[in-house]
Amino acid sequence: MTEEFNTAKTQLDILAPTSLSGNAILENPLLNKGTAFSEEERIELGLLGLLPPHIESLDDQALRAYEAFSMFETELEKHIYLRALQDNNEILFYRMVHDHLTEMMPIIYTPVVGEACQKFSEIYRRSRGLFISYPERQYIETILDNAIGKNIRVIVVTDGERILGLGDQGAGGMGIPIGKLSLYSVCGGIDPATTLPITLDVGTNNEERIKDPLYIGWRHSRINGEQYYEFLDLFVQAVIRKWPQVVLQFEDFALIHATPLLEKYRDQLCTFNDDIQGTAAVTVGTLLAAVKAANVSLCEQNVVFLGAGSAGCGIAEQIIAAMVMLGLTEADARRHIFMVDRHGLVHDGMEAKFPFQQRLAQSYTRVANWSADSSQSISLLEVIKQARPAILIGVSGQPGLFTEEIIREMTRGTATPIIFPLSNPTARIEAEPADVIKWSDGKALIATGSPFSPVNYKGQNYPIAQCNNSYIFPGIGLGILASEASRVTDGMLMAAAIALSESAENDTGSSESGLLPPLEDIRKVSKNIALAVGLQAQSDGVASKTSIEILQDKINETFWEPNYHPIKHQL
Ligand SMILES: NC(=O)c1ccc[n+]([C@@H]2O[C@H](COP(=O)([O-])OP(=O)(O)OC[C@H]3O[C@@H](n4cnc5c(N)ncnc54)[C@H](O)[C@@H]3O)[C@@H](O)[C@H]2O)c1
Ligand SMILES: O=C(O)C[C@H](O)C(=O)O
Ligand SMILES: [Mg+2]
Fold first, then answer.
1. 278-468, which class in CATH?
2. Closest-approaching ligand to the CA atom of 469
3. Which end of the chain is more exposed for a tag (fewer CB within 10 A), N or C?
4. Do 370 and 346 touch, CB atoms closer than 8 A?
5. Which residues contact 202 (CB under 8 A, 6 or more apart)?
6. Tens digits of per-residue pLDDT, 494-535?
7. How confident is the model at residue 6 (pLDDT cuts 50, 70, 90)?
């Protein structure tokens, strides 16, 4: 056991002593240690006879649990097993995931969590987190009171409408907040007793789900418009009243709601939208590492996006901010960004639906003669031929759109094309890394949203970085808690991106993980991000000033590790 483990704090420090006894303890995943309860605890807590006599250590238990995990054949079965373990004994679950992060992260998170959301009703076993359904809106306060943890510091909330690239999964979307919060704990050291996954069940427009006799959600089409925003406001105001300091992360909301909700609430509490802002930070961080590896300047590159949605527009704005930070004027920076959506290049001669897309529209006079035919629609291929980008980012949720022709055209225009097909889960990716390597003859620098093994091409190994917001949000959460920041500023997100790129630089060359540091280092990376975020919060005036040393100590103190601690009984 490492020293880091021995000195770390656990949620049991906070929970123990307990007034519970007997089965009530074994039924509580935050308290249950199973066969690891000592003889003294078994006597004191009323557990005698409820457990087999041999007393085990956490390491012994982890060995058995890993054997059991390895016996399952499908990834979904492994997911169900790990989720059951989490609901039975959280410390054992976190120890397992911590010790086998590279193997288990894709099982509890992207991509397998996508299938788990689609089949959530079939595989449902036991309650976790809170479901707040529209018909129960008058009970919101009571529902929040019913949360198991009483000192909630981080909430991830979804309404299930845009689950990865899999669309509307209704109440099944709950898999996403559960998975994200597991990463907050294992990668960012956030005590699981202080986290809370929430699903706002506002109905679903997914016919398959509604017709499914096993569907666990409210069987009703989605509410929308004013009703929707009133319901969301009831929720957010109740959260502010109950936990005014909480970090509220919005996750996997549909395009029409994501930005308006962020704009409405970002000045009311400590909140951010992970798909817009977390994704932007991880992508800018990875891009900074990529341009360095390609030995080019970001400000001299054109950047083309496929998908002008929440993620695409969020990333684009942060690239513009990075270019401005590096010396361009904002107007010049905007000229480098080309957003291609369903109807081709977004330009001001067409009707762009949303203000956040309009802000990124190219001037039609500049691109008028780019169209291959007489229509005003300018395809991705035409944009690449004309704009000669070095960077291509896919956030369309549509598989296969980075075709051989597209990748070859990218390779024709630049020595080291930077190609990021970021759509999740794996089946939604714009192009498989192996194809991108082949079509670019090994020249492309690649990062994907879902995990991929290294590609072997002509005898050389090409590691594929996983540019997923999971590299960012655990560190942001840790930085906010440690610095007690009251808001999430744009500066804090940029600080997170820069800290990630610096961590990447320190690792590049030695790692198997390409442009980003290896997952095994994620906790160190999260601490670096947390420090940068906390310092930026202080400079932005949303956290009290301290010295770097004090902030660093606070981060280390806050950082939770999965260890057992003695539990005492209290009447
Ligand atoms: N890697 C990551 O960390 C990360 C983070 C966020 C989102 N994503 C992925 O990115 C994808 C999009 O997420 P989002 O939140 O932006 O969704 P969104 O619904 O807000 O945006 C998707 C956009 O793609 C456009 N689109 C659809 N079909 C298209 C086509 N054929 N050609 C061009 N554009 C098309 C849509 O019109 C929409 O504007 C999802 O698959 C999601 O899983 C990845
Ligand atoms: O959940 C992920 O894997 C990343 C991102 O938040 C997404 O919605 O795809
Ligand atoms: Mg998401």
1. alpha beta
2. 1
3. C
4. no
5. 133, 134, 159, 218, 222, 223, 228, 231
6. 999 999 999 987 664 445 668 999 999 999 999 999 999 999
7. very low
Q: What's the ipTM?
A: 0.99
Closest ligand to Cα 276: 1
Please report, in range form, the residues annotated as the binding site for a divalent metal cation.
Answer: 251-252, 275
Closest CA to 242 of 178, 153, 369: 153
CATH class of 3-105: mainly alpha
Q: Which of 540, 470, 535, 471 is nearest to 507 (CA)?
A: 471
Going by their DSSP bridges, the two strands 460-462 and 455-457 should be labelled as antiparallel
Pocket of ligand 2 (CB under 6 A): 110, 164, 252, 274-275, 424, 449, 468-469
CATH no. of 110-253: 3.40.50.10380
Centre of ligand 3 to C-alpha 251, Å, is 5
d(CA 468, CA 449): 5
Q: SS3 of 445, please?
A: strand
467 neighbors 448 (Cβ within 8 angstroms)? yes
Domain boundaries, the chain: 3-105, 110-253, 278-468, 471-556
pLDDT in tens, 193-248: 999 999 999 999 999 999 999 999 999 999 999 999 999 999 999 999 999 999 99
Q: Ligand 1 centroid to 396 CA: how many Å? A: 3
Cα-based distances in Å from 447 to 18, 39, 148, 338, 392? 47, 51, 38, 19, 11
Q: Which of 396, 400, 386, 385 is nearest to 436 (CA)?
A: 400
Matching fold, domains 3-105 and 278-468: no
pLDDT of 460 above 90: yes
C-alpha span between 228 and 86 (Å, rounded):
32
| Element spanning 380, H or E | helix 380-387
pTM of the prediction? 0.96
- pLDDT at residue 9 above 50? no
Instruction: Specify the 3-state DSSP secondary structure of 292.
Output: helix
SS3 248: strand
Q: Output the CA angle 430-436-438, nearest 5 degrees.
A: 150
- Among 297, 303, 264, 267, CA closest to 283: 303
pLDDT at residue 269, as a whole number: 98
DSSP codes, 268-285 = TSEEEEIIIIIHHHHHHH
From first CA to last CA, the distance across the chain in angstroms is: 34
Most distant CA pair in the chain: distance in Å?
Answer: 83
* CB-based burial label for 510 (10 Å; 0-12, 13-18, 19+): exposed
